[in-house]
Amino acid sequence: MNELTLRQLEYFVAVAETRSITKAAARSHVSQAAVSLALTELEKTLGVTLTIRRPAKGVALTAEGRIILPEARAILDQTQQLADHVSQVKNTLSGPLYIGCFRTLSMHVIPHLVEWFGIHHPEVELIFDEDNAQELQEKMLAGQLSACLLYEAQLEPGCRTILVQDHRRHAVLSPQHPLAASEEVSLAQLADFPAVLLDERPALERTLNEFYSRSLDPKVGIRTRSVQTVQNLVGRNIGYGLLMHSTSTSPEGRPLVARKISDSVPRNALMLALPPGHTTATVQALIASLEELPQH
Which residues lie in coiled coils (predicted)? Predict the structure, then answer.
């Protein structure tokens, strides 16, 4: 039997998860030829066909490939655990850390993580994937991401979770808005004025249902998928916004004020989602970094 290598298993898992030799090569930072050769050598070593390579249609796993995939992942995980233990003994962490981050959270968490790891674990390479919550969790459960940062309402089944920060939406207003002088505002008061709402699901549905459940019909003027656009429109006093994070100025530099909503609105905390199984030392460092995340 020929020698089986960890590199062969790594490339096989990458091909299985991406369903593509090209994508697996890009993910592993090697040539397509290197991935193809390693896959062929692994199949010869094991004496089975693991993949079906279809020109222009990607790569499919055979029945044997589907059986061997979890075993290959387990071996790689055990190897990573060993490397983590060695790193802990040496008091240093290194290597890539793949983090999924929901789009609207990026500006609040990514700068902090980059700075924190640069100080405490400069050998760790942070690789961020900014996408919608469902896609991020699917990638994580497929082994492509180590962890995901998202909101509580976006969590999918099958993930372990850690509370990072407790959040509830608040009203964002221009200082010229008629309600800006109040310390807190009700949804009934807001319903009388034009709204600029964030068009992200399930956030939009949750926001509208909070009005509808109180027999209120909000005046939705503009919807946008950009938090910065909401802030700029509010800064121009086009309408009010309902956001999770507050800031004193819009990206255009216009002043903003945040007001607590007097109604009982549900919590939508910032959460760290993790896949089932072992938590590596690098992910433990990520958890530690989030304990120092400033409140926004």
Answer: none
